[in-house]
Amino acid sequence: MENLKALSYALRQDVVRMIREGKGGHIGGDMSVMETLVALYFHEMNISPENQDDPDRDMFIMSKGHSVEAYYAVLAEKGFFPKEEVISRFSKFGSAYIGHPNNKLPGIEMNSGSLGHGLPVAVGMALAKKMDQSPSRVYVVMGDGEMAEGSVWEGAMSASQYKLDNLCAVVDRNRLQISGCTEDVMHQDSVEERFKAFGWNVLSVDGNDIDALIKAFDEAKTVKGKPTLVVANTTKGKGSSVMENKAPWHHKVPSDEEYAQIMSDLKAREEALRNE
Ligand SMILES: Cc1ncc(C[n+]2csc(CCOP(=O)(O)OP(=O)(O)O)c2C)c(N)n1
Ligand SMILES: [Mg+2]
């Protein structure tokens, strides 16, 4: 199997380049969610440019759509569009690679960015797949700040009502949102207990650990009669001390010095993981 740990750090470098080129981007949440996307796209899900029109493909929704740069880097690596094109064109005037996911691009199932919509749409998709007796599974990635949206809880309620065991949701639990700590803005401890109370199977893992994520996604597939939530406990800005756990790095363009430091930190980590 490809070295997915090292790949996560290589793709983080693509993200940082993209954000420098595009002069903006939600860098902190891109860094925290990277292993989740890599585990899903390179291990778990049955999705590729070859089967993107197959009705039985797995479905993916990036509900925390502001982390589009991480999503673009993974889709480009997967072959949905050319990597250098997305890096050089990201967020430029007239570019297709805009600052939130849109379904005119190959591989993107749903427009997102207005938080709180991904889970309800995923519930509808999962219900439809059940009705069609499709083997397809539906995955949705949300932010922890996103838990403040009421529609998340309507989706959570209906997913268990309809016993959607073909649905797997992830919360990127980095404990920060746009304006500070989630527990200060809209407290939610414990997100695990809340989803359990809504009838979900809940797994809580180190969300920057590929092996732990893969184990959780594999386990989710075996659970019958209820949807699964994977709480991915992550670090916002993961990969460089310049940005780790710092709320202002929610949306930020690194300066020349910061850029050099971040890229060198990410490269060093990638190389260490390649040699492990
Ligand atoms: C409905 C809605 N309200 C507000 C926003 C503005 N907004 C963009 S990102 C963000 C914070 C999201 O935090 P979180 O879900 O924790 O994401 P992450 O930490 O992974 O970046 C907010 C409030 C939005 N995109 N959609
Ligand atoms: Mg967050």
* CATH homologous superfamily title: Thiamin diphosphate (ThDP)-binding fold, Pyr/PP domains
CATH fold group: Rossmann fold
Mean pLDDT: 97
Give the overall silhouette.
globular
State the major sheet: 5 strands, parallel
Content-based structural category: alpha/beta
Overall description:
- This protein is α/β, with parallel strands linked by helices and 276 residues long.
- The chain has a single domain (4-274), classed as Thiamin diphosphate (ThDP)-binding fold, Pyr/PP domains (Rossmann fold, 3-Layer(aba) Sandwich).
- 45% of the residues lie in helices and 12% in strands.
- It is built from ten helices and seven strands.
- The protein has helices spanning 4-22, 27-44, 68-78, 83-89, 118-131, 150-161, 182-185, 191-197, 210-222, 256-274; strands at 59-62, 138-143, 167-173, 176-177, 180-181, 201-206, 228-233.
- Helix 9 (210-222) links the parallel strand 6 (201-206) and strand 7 (228-233).
- Helix 1 crosses helix 3 and helix 5 (118-131) packs parallel to helix 6 (150-161).
- The mean pLDDT is 97.
- The protein binds thiamine diphosphate (TPP) and magnesium ion (MG).
- Thiamine diphosphate is lined by residues 26, 28-29, 32, 64, 66, 113-116, 143-146, 172, 174, 176-178, 236, 250.
Task: List the main descriptive attributes of the protein structure presented here.
45% helix; binds thiamine diphosphate; alpha/beta; 276 residues; single chain; 5-stranded parallel beta sheet; 7 strands
